[in-house]
Write a structure and sequence with these properties.
Elements: H1 9-16, H2 21-45, E1 63-65, E2 71-73, H3 86-101, E3 102-111, E4 114-126, H4 130-140, E5 144-148, E6 151-156, H5 159-172, H6 179-194, H7 200-212, H8 234-237, H9 243-253, E7 255-262, E8 265-274, H10 278-287, E9 295-297, E10 302-307, H11 310-319, H12 327-342, H13 346-361
Antiparallel strand pairs: 1-2, 3-4, 4-6, 5-6, 7-8, 8-10, 9-10
Helix pairs in contact: 3-9, 6-7, 12-13
Domain Homing endonuclease LAGLIDADG: 94-189, 246-336
GO molecular function: endonuclease activity
Protein name: Intron-encoded LAGLIDADG endonuclease family protein
Length: 362
């Protein structure tokens, strides 16, 4: 992996040429003054977030060096979304992540001649992305994480916790995929189990029906009742899909990748696949200004939203700046950095692609 991917030209200069020592000292003094001037400004205005208006010209993005000597890509258009309360932002993010990779499960367990019903909420990730599950556990303050080979699973099985913590979140911020159907099954099962006025036999029959029930063909989450169908533009979404939800969903399902366009050219791509819920991919395409249509791949039995269009890639770069929590954040930063510095440089992009592939296998 080329070290230039992670270190600035400034730092490289410092080590490669002692003749520039005075220039570097002066530069860091200036950075020091600017940084603490900003800190005082934030203190006076109660605003701790730096918003820097940048621009894109000839597909070159502006970058700002931060105090840890890494680079942060800044928003390009100077427009900033309303900063939500951290709890609200996390809960919307969690619903999006769950839509991408969550599971609401009703399990039947036979104990002698009786049946015991277990309800659970599960999120599964590769051990490579352990930090995203630890983030969820920390924010919720509940749950357990177990390891099975190269897979990690965050789960909540306690019915009281499901009722007191999870249900309020998923009731307030509805799931946008078919996972909504599974969530309602679990919620109804919990209600039946909590009902002290019906017999155990009745509970077993009703929960068994719930467990075996399947969503109708072309099922759409009721959350989409607030949208104007068919979807045509961002306004037709009517705020059904929020940015926090989309960030969570992309962390679970999205792919920032490099692919061969031909034998001498590697390009940047972004893709999503879904077995169901075409409407979700169509909405994401609208929000990210991806012009390619959602396609159905019969051979794989799933829908796909995919683009390598430069303008769409630049929209995506801007949209997801400083948003993600897990290892997808690192993949995104490498992907963005390589687009800015090495677009059309086959040798560099080839090395970076191999590095990311090895990273994912660890």
């Amino acid at each position: 992996m080329d070290k230039e991917l992670f270190y600035s030209d400034i730092k490289k200069s410092k080590f490669s040429s002692m003749r520039k020592t005075l220039q570097l000292i002066l530069f860091y003094i200036i950075l020091y003054v600017i940084y603490y001037s900003y800190q005082m400004f934030y203190y006076l205005t109660n605003n701790y977030t730096i918003y820097v208006k940048m621009y894109m010209a000839r597909r070159q993005c502006a970058w700002l060096k931060n105090k840890r000597l890494f680079f942060s890509h800044q928003r390009l258009d100077g427009k900033h979304l309303y900063k939500k309360d951290n709890k609200i932002e996390f809960e919307e993010w969690l619903v999006g992540f769950t839509d991408g990779d969550g599971n609401f499960h009703i399990a039947e367990q036979k104990v002698g001649d009786t049946v015991k019903w277990n309800l659970s909420f599960k999120l599964t990730q590769s051990a490579y992305n352990a930090r995203v599950l630890n983030y969820i556990k920390k924010e919720l303050g509940i749950g357990s994480i177990t390891k099975n080979g190269k897979k990690l699973q965050f789960f909540i099985k306690d019915r009281k916790i499901i009722e007191s913590v999870l249900i309020p979140i998923f009731d307030k911020y509805p799931l946008l995929t078919t996972k909504y159907f599974d969530y309602m099954k679990l919620k109804k099962a919990l209600s039946i189990l909590n009902n002290t006025e019906v017999s155990k036999t009745y509970k077993d029959i009703e929960i068994k029906k719930l467990k075996d029930s399947k969503p109708p063909v072309n099922y759409i989450s009721p959350a989409w009742n607030n949208a104007r169908l068919p979807l045509t533009n961002v306004d037709s979404l009517n705020n059904v899909m929020t940015k926090s939800w989309l960030v969570g969903f992309i962390e679970a399902e999205g792919s920032f990748y490099l692919t061969n366009k031909d034998s001498n050219r590697i390009v940047h791509g972004f893709g999503l696949t879904q077995k169901l819920d075409k409407i979700v991919l169509e909405s994401i395409g609208i929000l990210l200004h991806i012009s390619t249509k959602v396609k159905y791949k019969e051979i794989y039995n799933h829908y796909i939203l995919d683009t390598t269009n430069s303008r769409a890639i630049e929209n995506i770069i801007e949209y997801f700046n400083n948003t993600m929590k897990g290892m997808k954040s690192l993949e995104y930063r490498i992907w963005v950095r390589s687009y800015i510095k090495y677009k059309n440089n086959f040798d560099k992009l080839y090395k970076i692609r191999n590095f990311v592939r090895k990273l994912r296998k660890n």
